Amino acid sequence: MYLVVLLSLLFSAVNLSAAVGSITQSLQQPGVIVRQNQTLPGARGASLEMRDLIKTGAGSLGVTFNDNTVMQVTEHSRLLIDEFVYDPNVKTSG
What we know:
Number of helices: 1
Number of strands: 8
Radius of gyration: 15 Å
Structural class: alpha+beta
Helix content: 10-25%
Oligomer: single chain
Strand order of the largest sheet: 4-1-6-7
Shape: globular
Distance between the termini: 43 Å
Largest sheet: 4 strands, antiparallel
């Protein structure tokens, strides 16, 4: 029983630290990524993880998630990546 709980916790921790997307555009003044009490530059190419907080000032950031969803984080905004669910093995018809 304890082993199952431990493995579940370990699996959850691994998923939280996996990249879910990246900064693909940084206009004017770059924003920042707040991750576990660290402030990282929101430069183009920066990796994004679950629970990251993206903050912008006078600039804006383009974000592309692993499922190819594209978002624009405009001036003076905050975006918290609290949940990202994506299974690349599931095909959708369209």
